[in-house]
Amino acid sequence: MTSANRHDRSALGWALRLSHLDLLVTMVLLQLSQSFLSSESGIQRGLFNLLFLVVVISAIRTLSSSKIRMISALTIGGIGFLLASYADFHHSVLLIAATDSCYVVVFLLLILSLAESVFRKGPADLNRIVGAACIYFVIGLFFAFVFSLLETFQPGAFALSPFSDSVGIHQDTVSNLIYFSNVTLTSLGYGDIIPITRPARTLATLEAMVGQLYLAIVVAKLVGLHIAEQK
């Protein structure tokens, strides 16, 4: 075997061991691209909906540790995509609520699968670190859809900019709430979008607390594993 072949196999093995890398890459792409998609274009609304399905599909390796979770996430994610696509043509509060509920469940399943991988016994390897980063991204998406669900049933729960296009209003709402969720999770608190109602304030506070506690717990876990390896 030549050195080039050994290098290729080593690189392939390294990539295969990073079971959460696909998910991390697609979530970063989701965060970057969704803000540029206009709700006024039917094609771009379709791409917006497709982005979330791609995130679910990219998590297959992450979810593979539990066949039940993997099948459940793929099925519910597919249903969420179909409901979101149908809601683009038939605006309905129930359809929007069902779509948001599907993604809330999917991202919760992802958090559980990632947590099992990140907090299991074993060395503090790169895959564990990538998984920890994935959890942070998924928490932001999870709360974004929880916020969207609240806004659907309690319009005005968040101080959002008014939208004139009733067809694309859900996309605009979700996009803005993804931004708000990430700002809250990282405790930036710009103040351009604020929670108005008591449930909205409670959920926003909860997310901020989760974000701070998660970082502290993950750092403690990784440092503990590193110290254990040195002994």
TrEMBL record:
Keywords: Membrane, Transmembrane, Transmembrane helix
Transmembrane parts of this sequence: 12-34, 46-63, 70-87, 93-114, 126-150, 209-228
Top-level taxonomic group: Bacteria
InterPro entries: K_chnl_dom
Keyword Cell wall biogenesis/degradation annotated: no
Potassium channel domain residues: 141-223
SUPFAM superfamilies for the chain: Voltage-gated potassium channels (SSF81324)
Name this polypeptide is given: Ion channel
